[in-house]
Amino acid sequence: MTGTITRLPDLGWMLRPLTEIPGVRHAVVVSEDGLRLGHASAENLSGPVASLSVADAESLSAACAAMTMTGRSTSALLFGRGAGARQLMLETDQGFVLFTHAGVGADLGVATDLNADVGLVAQQMQLLVAKIGAHLSSLPRDAAAATS
Question: Which of 10, 24, 75, 93 could be cross-linked to 83 through a Cys-Cys bond (beta carbons 3.0 to 4.6 Å apart)?
């Protein structure tokens, strides 16, 4: 059985408005199953992760997908089947990671430092999703076509 691999477009350029918010370090668009659809880092960062490489962004994408899956499972457990998680927030010693549903099959994750206004960041994430959510979506991939 053979199939074709379709290269997904990099949606990182759409994340630039988020990385310009004071305190935002990184942003990533993730497919529901953990594939990186795009990422961006704020300019002039210092610290252990000053800029996300593609490999770092792919690892972050997998972690984001796991977190959102946990959120969906928890929602279903507490509120019944079909209850989805819209937003999640993880607080660490160094900052925050916010996740939000970004369209069909996609999520948006943003990492901030401790001084970020997380309310403003969450609001801007929602505005970005409302503005360009169709571009952030990741439709299910087709099954590979069998050939003889």
Answer: 75
Residues 23-136, CATH architecture: 2-Layer Sandwich (3.30)
In the chain, domain spans: 23-136
pLDDT digits (tens, 9 = 90+) for 110-142: 999 999 999 999 999 999 988 876 665 555 555
Where are the alpha helices (H) located in 31-106, listed in sequence order? 54-79
Is pLDDT at 6 greater than 70 in this prediction? no
Closest by CA to 63, choosing from 94, 12, 26, is: 26
Cα(51)–Cα(70) distance, rounded to whole angstroms?
A: 27
DSSP 77: H
Can you read off the two tokens belonging to residue 74? 């928890």
Strand-pairing partners, residue 41, are 26
